[in-house]
């Protein structure tokens, strides 16, 4: 009996030290889907938009439609940086008709049911905001998930 218990303790100690396979690690929440912009603010002030805005997110791909027309002249990507909090999102904008460096907005995205709040600095390459609340130097977009 003692031999069996000793054997189990040795096996358990090796199992505890083994790395967790990626497929078993906690996966980040998915932002995939179609999102309608319902509220936005700039520098803490609410902004009203006369045209509907939709974001379609699929993995790292992002397309934006204004008033039913898909935005052209830009390529967007939406990426969760490695080794960062789950809420961290880098929004990258590349202008197809310019040789300029891409804009990178380091933001945070909070997901609660069918609502997503995305907060990012007003200047590209600025520091990531500490939270998703409205304030000076920040855009805050609130979206509702909709069916395509």
Please tell me about this protein's structure.
The chain is mostly beta strands and 148 residues long. The protein has one domain (32-146): Lipocalin (Beta Barrel), CATH 2.40.128. 11% of the residues lie in helices and 45% in strands. The protein contains 1 helix and 10 strands; from the N terminus they run αββββββββββ. It has one helix at 2-17; strands at residues 33-42, 45-47, 53-58, 61-66, 69-70, 74-79, 88-95, 103-112, 115-121, 138-146. It has an 8-stranded antiparallel beta barrel. The longest helix has 16 residues, at 2-17. It is globular. The N and C termini lie far apart (62 Å). The relative contact order is 0.18. Mean pLDDT is 78; it is low at 1-28.
- Taking pLDDT < 50 over at least 5 consecutive residues as the criterion, the unreliable ranges are 1-28
Main sheet properties:
8 strands, antiparallel, barrel
Side-by-side strand order of the widest sheet? 1-3-4-6-7-8-9-10
Share of helix, binned = 10-25%
Secondary-structure-based class equals: mainly beta
| CATH top level label | Mainly Beta
Order of helices and strands: HEEEEEEEEEE
Instruction: Please work out how many helical segments DSSP would assign.
Output: 1
- Known CATH architecture: Beta Barrel
Using only C-alpha atoms, the radius of gyration works out to 21 Å
Classify the fold: give the CATH topology: Lipocalin
Inertia-based shape: globular
Beta strand count: 10
Cα end-to-end separation: 62 Å
């Amino acid at each position: 009996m003692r031999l069996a218990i000793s054997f189990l303790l040795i096996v358990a100690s090796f199992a505890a030290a083994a790395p967790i396979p990626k497929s078993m690690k906690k996966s980040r929440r998915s932002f995939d889907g179609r999102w309608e912009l319902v509220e936005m603010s700039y520098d803490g002030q609410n902004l009203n938009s006369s045209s509907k805005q939709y974001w379609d997110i699929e993995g790292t791909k992002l397309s934006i439609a204004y008033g039913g027309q898909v935005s052209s002249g830009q390529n967007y990507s939406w990426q969760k940086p490695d080794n960062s909090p789950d809420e961290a999102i880098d929004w990258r904008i590349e202008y197809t008709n310019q040789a300029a460096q891409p804009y990178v907005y380091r933001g945070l995205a909070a997901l609660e049911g069918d609502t997503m709040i995305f907060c990012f600095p007003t200047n590209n390459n600025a520091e990531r905001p500490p939270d998703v609340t409205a304030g000076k130097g920040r855009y805050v977009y609130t979206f509702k998930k909709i069916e395509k």
